[in-house]
Design a protein that fits this description.
The complex is a heterotrimer of chains A (318), B (172) and C (503). Chain A has 318 residues and is an alpha/beta fold. Chain A contains twelve helices and ten strands. In chain A, strands 1, 2, 3, 4, 7, 8, 9 and 10 form an eight-stranded mixed β-sheet that branches. In chain A, strand 5 (146-149), helix 6 and strand 6 form a beta-alpha-beta unit. The radius of gyration of chain A is 21 Å and the shape is globular. The N and C termini of chain C lie far apart (62 Å). Chain C has a two-stranded antiparallel ribbon with strand order 1-2. The radius of gyration of chain C is 22 Å and the shape is globular. Chain C has 503 residues and is mainly alpha-helical. Classes of the chains: A alpha/beta (318), B mainly alpha (172), C mainly alpha (503). At the B-C interface, helix 3, helix 4, helix 5, helix 6 and helix 7 of B face helix 3, helix 9, helix 10, helix 19 and helix 20 of C.
Amino acid sequence: MKKLIATGVAAAALAAAPAWADFPADNPITFVIPYSPGGGFDTIVRQFAPAMGEAMGATVVPENISGAGGTRGAQSVFRADPDGYTIGIFNIPGFTVNEVLGRDQGFDLSEVSWIANLAIARYAVAVPADSEINSVEELCAGDDPVKFSDTGATSTASVTTRIAMSIIGCDIIDVTGYSGSNDAMIAVISGEVDATIKPISSLARYLDGSGSGDLKLILTLSSDELVEGVATAADIGYPELANFTLARVIGGPPGMPAELVTVLEDGLRAAGESEAVTSWAAGAGVDLEFMGAADTTAMMNELSTFYQQYADIVAVEQ
Amino acid sequence: MDQSEISDAPRAVTSIWPPVVLLVFAIAVLIVAWGYPAVAARFPVMVAVAMILLVILDIWSRTKLPGAAAVDAFGGTDFRRREMMHNPTFANQAECVGWIAGAFALMATVGILAASPIFAAAYVRLRGKRSLGVAALVGLGVLAFQVGVFEWALDYELYRGLLFTKGGVSAW
Amino acid sequence: MGLDALLEAFLAVLNGGSFLYLMTGVILGLTFGVIPGLGGTTALALLIPVTYTLDPLNAMYLAGGVMGATSFGGSISAILLNTPGTAPNAATTFDGYPLARQGKAGLAIGAAATASALGGLIGLFTLLLFIPVAREVVLSFGSSEFFLLTVLGLAAIAVSVKGKLLRGLIAACIGLLIAFTGANQFTGDTRFTGGIDYLWDGIPLVPALTGLFAISQMIELALKGGSVAEDGGRGEAVKMKITGVGSGILSVFQHWTVLLRGSIIGTVIGAVPGLGGTVAAFLSYSSTAQTAKDRDTFGTGNIKGVIAPEAANNAKDGGSLIPTVAFGIPGSAETAIFLAILVLHGMEPGPTILLQHEREVYGLIVALTVSAVTASIIGLLLSRVLVLITRIDVNIVVPVVVLLSLTGVYVLEGRMADVLLAVAMGILGYLMIRFDYPRLTLVIAFVLGETAERSFHQIRLISDGEVFGYMLGRPISVVLIVAIVITFLLPTMRSAMARRAGA
């Protein structure tokens, strides 16, 4: 009931003056997470929310709206009023891939008001640490297709694996169905499959030095050297592979006034620079990489065009 | 459990209609699954075919056709060890299912907190024919638990109902 | 290393503040366990935001208290109301409820409490033994073993639904089809969704089980009328005295082989991600019922039918931590939430979890141990009061249980669609009771279906199509194949022997 009245008051205020005039007023900002508590999307939002609220002089409330592969939460953001009081984190390029597959997600990524990008994870190719293979060339040299492990065929990692290896011209079988990315990496350790492509931050816990030392990297999908002594996509002559990333993108309902976007963008930027967030990121191995609204929107368009080129590989049936 | 209860399973339960409904269901599933891509279709098709065969055996065991007794002996299709030994009327069953559906409808429209005491009290009073005092007591008890455990101790906002939230059914 | 840490954790838990968190967890776990529809997963999911502000170790005590207590709490409603408080208690209803109807609720509760506590201890002890080799255990269980375990589970269905084989198998088919609903993991194709977004993630387990077990039972009970302890219409109340609690406790020691077998099955199944307590308890029950000399009395109130599932049910918690200590991966829904709590506290669980987060892991193990024992003691102390539930007018029990379990379904994910699903499943479950199709075989097949399908898909790709040859090359797979063959042949061999003895 209280909420109803509050919305009524907000609506009245909207009619009287520009929406952003005193934003953020006393109302809390709802930060939608389209997955259950405890995952990567949930954790980063819960870390950013208090710092963001402090920077903006407002309360930012994380809200988990899970279901339908994350589209239910994204839909709720998409359908909310563009008054700045509802924003959400988006699964990118997961949702981009779904659009390429032609699936109706109940929202249109090109209409979302993009606010910022908080972090970027890059991928790497990993093989067992005791393997004699030290490069992608050696990995693909055999007569049989190389076996990779993944969770689902529409997961970002699986799409990345299939597109990247087809660009390189490597014949692969992507064994999907592992219940999590950890299980997929363990399948490499136990020898069920030959290799896997996963975000470097996830692989770190199985690498020598940062983790258990069961796996080693043979290629990072990046243009700059990210791990000492490991070849990059640019090194082996396929710089376009650096397009494969996992982003943490924040957006709001379509048609949000530019002034509101700026206020929120500044709040997120300040949060990303705060002591609490930076120290957490260092401990958890998250690569903070802040991008403003304009850069994020440009990146979203690029990603859409990029995946569209490979639509037939994305949709492949095994 | 005395013998008289065991022997007389109601006609509705032993008739061929329950497995016939399942047969229609299984055939529908088979038709739908047949249209899926090869890998996705493999298991559903297998299960649907197995189910059709099993259901046909079930129907057979309920008839007087030759071999029905053998199917019965092998498949254990008699009704001697039923889970539910009483035989309510159709109206009574419909009423009970209606109450459950009513609980959901009430929760959906006015929210869980408001629906809880109303439903509990109404059920105790109307179906249970207990006094108003008992009905009110049960209603307040449920409300106290919901508010105390969820809203207060765990700080969780229970659903407020279609009437009081934005987004309608699409927010479910 | 291990023993020091364990001792340290034990001493730490005796510290006043920590003990309070643990006991809060136990009470919450018992309460959520007793109420159908509210289980350990729901309790833990609700606690995640609360633990955010706690010290990580206290968060572990709270979570461990909940985890250790729910399954015994659930056995109380299984025995007294024929409604499993949590899904894994479903197998306990088979013999627990008949015992209650015979006025031996005390015996059943005593046995359930003791079997839960001891099963929990055996599971955790096994875990401690396995910690040094946990890595090897996890690595030797690949897609092939997962697939064969699901086949073993399905085979156990086929041979265990005594007297209802055909209808049990039909129910299992429905369960498998339910499991296949939604976007499948491996190819991403959506199946049987009818264009409904909600079904894209598949049919969620907790709402479905709440409907099938709790809501359906409430419809049946409402139709029966009277009170649980009273036969509908006839008005003759069975005397449910809480006597025999002592002999219930003793019975567990008399049938120590049942306890041990149940605990081992629980630990092993618990260690396999995706199978969980319902399958563990069911396999423990069916293997005990199959091999017992007095197997004809199972289902009519055999105390061994209470001990077996309850031991497995609590032992699975220890087992589900084996993949967790080895690689930081969850073995059950509850351990997944435990890991989520670590992540929320800025820790990153992985294969080095035992080195980096030793305190938290041992804290959880100690909390589970203490919780399993104290929950049973509290349960025994309260048993006299609890049994009064069976004397309450069903017209009061039914609305209360329906409301609380539907609310429980809502709070798990905050989705009204889940509540609608629970109601639909409740009506399906009632029709199954009415027309005598066993619900548990549907549920077991439902739980196993997804793992069965995707692990088969994986073996096919990994083995380049040589599925059977690949399995035969793996020792644990061979053992499982033998177990499956024996499961199928046992009833046949037994009837052949009986015929020879008769001739």
